[in-house]
Structure formats: structure tokens, C-alpha cells
Amino acid sequence: xxxxxxITAMNSNRMLGLTTSSQAKSTEKLSSGxxxxxxxxxxxxxxxxxxxxxxxxxxxxxxxxxxxxISVVQTAEGALNEVEDMLQRMNELAVKGENGTLTTSDRxxxxxxxxxxxxxxxxxxxxxxxxxxxLLDGAFIKGIQVGAEAGQHIDISIANMSMAGLAHYIxxxxxxxxxxxxxxxxxxxxxxxxESKNVSYTATTYTLKSASGYTxxxxxxxxxxxxxxxxxxxxxKATTTTYSTVNPDTKKYNLKALTRxxxxxxxxTFQNLExxxxxxxxxxxxxxxxxxxxxxxxxIVSSQRSDLGAIQNRLEHTINNLNNIVENTQSAExxxxxxxxxxxxxxxxxxxxxxxxxxxxLSQANQGNQLALSLLG
Length: 377
Known about the structure:
Elements: H1 7-32, H2 43-97, H3 104-127, E1 129-130, E2 133-134, E3 141-145, E4 153-157, H4 163-170, H5 182-194, H6 232-237, H7 255-263, E5 271-272, E6 277-278, H8 284-337, H9 341-368, H10 372-376
Helix pairs in contact: 1-9, 2-3, 2-8, 4-5, 4-8, 5-8
């Protein structure tokens, strides 16, 4: 019998320490709800679950982003609904104004209402915003981030829905001109209703040729020095115009751009293209041109509304899919990281019994050396 080293007590103490450590971990898992509280608990599981957490949080935010996109679309589409209603009213007025039984004063009243409606369309275009961003000025081209990874966008693009913007879209392809020139005439007479400044251009400036589009421009797009009817004010600003009227390399005129440029330079009332004089009251021919323009404008607005509706449906499906992915990824992450309470309670109960037994055995082992005293007596 030895007393210098109590091996039994040392063994009991070591086993009690292991049980206590295991008990502490069980307590931590039960109290936190997580099976992995530190990397040492499960290094590989921690790495996998952290990637899943990143994906879940990213997809959750992406779902919120998509909902913001729906809000943008609904805001723009609601405004375009009003624009379309006003265009329908203008179409009705244009048809009415084209009737030959009306007097000049009748047409003047119709023209006044059309002018107010056009002004309201422009006001709607300039004031329809989302998060202080204008939606209908043609500059709203945004990507909605709808995924957890970089570049997972759904793009929203909204055209310029002002009256001038609609005229420009309708004017595409009209630079060729025609014998009747009715399409270009419609665009210019429309702009005459909404522009506020007079112009110094002569009537010949607006004259159309089937080959070149404008008097003073050859069919190849260069200036015709023989006729030389292009106004100097156009030439002076040609290289800086928004529509790039002249290509600085080829020195050729962009006829489509020039069409748009000219369409923005007419007087505040309908322009008499043949005589170069401003008219204070629209004629049946003017209303005929306006009628053709409104038809095209309604097609553009309806097309834009259809695009927005399609995007909204797409975003709603996107949100449903994102929420489904989040749910399933969260479930997978929980299987790796969350504590199984039933299993852990079994382990906790076992450790609790072992801890009590170990404490008791350590006490007994410490008392064993007391027997050596009997030999010394």
C-alpha cells in the first residue's frame, strides 16, 4: 500500500474532468440551439454551413430587391395608365376636330384642351419618380439584383414617355420622306403644339424629297451646295447637337437625326409647312396628322405597359423561386448546424449520471489512503 501517489483518485479525477467537459459542451449546445458553436466542434460542417448562410442571407435580400422592382414597375405602369387615358381623350378630340362641320372657334376649343392634355402628359413624365429617380424620362435603365451571386440581374428599361419623346420614337425611319410626307408632317405638327419658341427657318427647310429627305441634303447624306437651303443656325450647332446631326468624320448629315432636330424647332401652334407661317388655329389637316400621331403614341405606351406587366409577372415568379430556395437552403443549413435536442438531452443525461458517479468515486478514492493509518498505529 502506498500513500505518495493516489492513482485511483487521479484516475477518477481525470475521468470526472472529461465528463465535466462533455457536460459543458452539451449544456452549451442545448442553451444555444446550435450543434456547432466553434470551428473545433465540426470544422467541415462550419465551412459548409457558413456558405449556406451567405446564400440564404443574399437570397433573402434578393427577394426584397425583387419586391422593390415590382414597386417600381407598378409606379411606372400606374402613371402610364393615366397617360394612355389622356392619349385616348386626345384621339377622341383629334377625330372630332377633323370633322368638317366644325367652326374655327370649335377647333380652337378642341386645340386648347389637347394642349392642356399634352402638358399634363409631360408633367406626369417629369414627376413620376421612385426613390427620387425619374421613371419616365428615358434614362431609367436599372438592373434589379435578384440573386446571391454578382451580376444576377433582371433589367428594367422604361422609354421616354413625354410627348416629345413619343414623337421621336414614332419618327424612327421617317427621314426617307415620301411624296405625301404625311408621317413626318404629323410629327412636326404635333411638336408645334408643345414647343414654345418660334423658328427662323424658311419653308424650304422643311420641304421633302423622296431621295434625300430634305432640300439641301444629297441622297448620300452630304450637303447640297447647289440648293444650299439649310439654315446656318443648324449648320453652326450641327457638331454639338444632341442628335449628332453631322458625322464629324464623314461630314455627312444623319437624316434621321436631322428629322428629329427639325421636329423640335417648330412654333407653339401648328406649323404651316407649305407657307412657313404660324397658324393660331388648327385645321382639319392638322387634326388628321395629330390623329395619326396619337395612334402611334398609343401603340408605344401600350407596348411599354405590356413590357412592364411582363416584368412584374417575371419578378413575382422570381420572388416565389427565391423564397423556395431560401427555405430549402435554410433546412439544409439547419441539419448541419442546429442541435438535435432529443439526442443531446440523452447525452446530457448520461453525462450528468457519469458526473455524479465520478464525484462519488473520487471521494471514495481519497478516503482509501486513510487505511494506511491503521498500519501505522
